[in-house]
Design brief:
Blueprint lengths: L11 H6 L1 H20 L3 H15 L5 H10 L2 H12 L11 H4 L4 E6 L10 H5 L3 H12 L2 E7 L4 E3 L5 E3 L28 H5 L2
Parallel strand pairs: 1-2
Antiparallel strand pairs: 3-4
Helix pairs in contact: 2-3
């Protein structure tokens, strides 16, 4: 294996055991040139690599570091940064449903609970509603105390025109005893009159 990462005659296994050396070799042998050719903020990205190398120093061999990283999500590190930035107080954390799996918050807002968004129009067209329903379950079960399901009345279409929104069909599957509407959906919103009256 001859490359800028491993000069002729060097045994790669020894270098690969130390995550800092591996990262340094990868950065100098490949990533630095790639970053400078690809991004205006290349120096910032390279500084992030150096900071990461400092963070992992002394945390075991490359395998141990990679196993620890595999268990993290961007929410773990973002949450730590947000809490630190807020002086240890409350902070807002943004997440996708996929990233939120296994995590919980006291209050959760789920945006875009409209047909075409949740469930997505692509999933509906391809018969993937079961997977979208599973994701909806994951999303609503992230809330410990309060759950807000947000249904906008209108949205801007891709062409810039205003479009009226229909509440997600998943909302009709919720137990009416557990829901409180700030404003019941309009009969024109796509739910049958009997469905929205019960909310």
């Amino acid at each position: 294996m001859e490359s800028a990462l491993f000069p002729p005659g060097e045994v790669p296994e020894g270098v690969l055991k130390d995550p800092c050396t591996t990262l340094e070799r990868f950065s100098s042998g490949f990533y630095r040139g790639y970053a400078k050719a690809s991004w205006e903020n290349a120096e910032r990205r390279l500084e992030d690599i150096r900071a990461f190398s400092t963070d992992i120093r002394g945390k075991g061999d490359t395998r141990a570091v990679m196993e620890e990283l595999a268990l993290l999500t961007n929410l773990d590190t973002a949450g730590e940064r947000n809490t630190a930035a807020a002086g240890g107080g409350a902070a807002v954390q943004l997440s996708t449903v996929h990233q939120a799996k296994g995590l919980e918050w006291k209050v959760v807002f789920i945006l875009w609970m409209v047909d075409g968004r949740f469930p997505s129009s692509k999933a509906a067209a391809e018969g993937g509603l079961a997977e979208e329903r599973r994701l909806f379950y994951v999303a609503v079960t992230r809330a410990k105390d309060r759950l807000w399901l947000c249904v906008p009345k209108t949205m801007k279409g891709y062409d810039g025109r205003t479009e009226f929104c229909s509440p997600s069909e998943f909302l009709g599957e919720l137990d009416p005893e557990l829901t409180v509407w700030d404003e019941p959906p309009s009969p024109m919103a796509g739910l049958s009159r009997s469905a929205w009256r019960s909310w």
